[in-house]
Amino acid sequence: MPKPIFLLTLLPLPILLLLVLSRPGAQAPQQPQTTPAPTSSTAPTAASTTTTAAGANTAATTPAATVPPEAMRMVNPVKPTPNGLAHAKTIYGYDCAMCHGSNGNGQGDLAAQMKLTIEDWTKPASLQGKPDGELFYIISNGNGVMPPETGRAKPEDMWNMVVVIRSFSKQ
Fold first, then answer.
1. Which domains does the chain have, with CATH numbers?
2. I need a labelling partner for 167 at 20 to 30 A (CA). Which of 76, 89, 102, 145 fits?
3. For residue 56, is pLDDT > 80?
C-alpha cells in the first residue's frame, strides 16, 4: 500500500524544529520577571493556600501592596467614555473576574479555588477612603498574588478600570 505523500512532507518539520531549538545559543522565550509588592497597611491582604512538600495545604497570607504617597494623590486624568468603559470591562472580564467576580463581589472561581479572601466591591464601604490613585497603582503594579496590568493594558484602560471598579458598588 503506498504511503500518503503528505505524511512524508510533514515528518521533517518536527525534526527540524528540534534541531533549531537544541542548537547552542538557542533560548526559550523569556517570561517577564515580576517581583512581589512589599507589605503595607493601605491595601488588604489576601489569604492563599500553599502546598508543603508533604502535600499538606497550609493557609498563607499574601502581603499587600505598598502604595507610595505620590500614587495616593494621583487623580484620574481620563474622562470616561462608553467605548473606554466597555473596553475596560472586557479587560476586567479576561484578567480580573476570575478572582474578583464578574460583578466585583470577590467571589470569582479562581479566588475560591485558591482560598483567597478578596474585598467585596459591591459594598460601598469597601472602596471608601481609597483614592483613585491607590486603585490605579494596585491595578498597575499588582497586589500579592494579583499580577500587574502594566505591560498588558494601557494606562488609559487602567484608569477606566478604576471607574469600572467604582461602578460595582453603585449597581
1. 74-170 (1.10.760.10)
2. 145
3. no
Residue 150, classed as helix, strand or coil, is strand
CB 122 within 8 A of CB 103: yes
Using CA atoms, how far apart are residues 37 and 71, in angstroms rounded to an integer?
14
Q: CA-based Rg of the chain, rounded to a whole angstrom?
A: 22
C-alpha cell belonging to residue 52 = 508543603
Tell me which residue has cell 528540534: 18
Of residues 1 and 46, more confidently modeled:
1
Residues in the chain, overall count: 171
String of b and e for 31-66 (b: at least 16 CB within 10 Å)?
A: eeeeeebeeeebbbbbebeeeeeeeeeeeeebbbbb
pTM: 0.64
Pairwise CA distance, residues 152 & 145, whole Å = 16
In tens, the pLDDT along 93-152 reads 999 999 999 999 999 999 999 999 999 999 999 999 999 999 999 999 999 999 999 999
> What's the distance, Cα to Cα, between the start and end of the chain in Å?
69
pLDDT averaged over the chain?
75
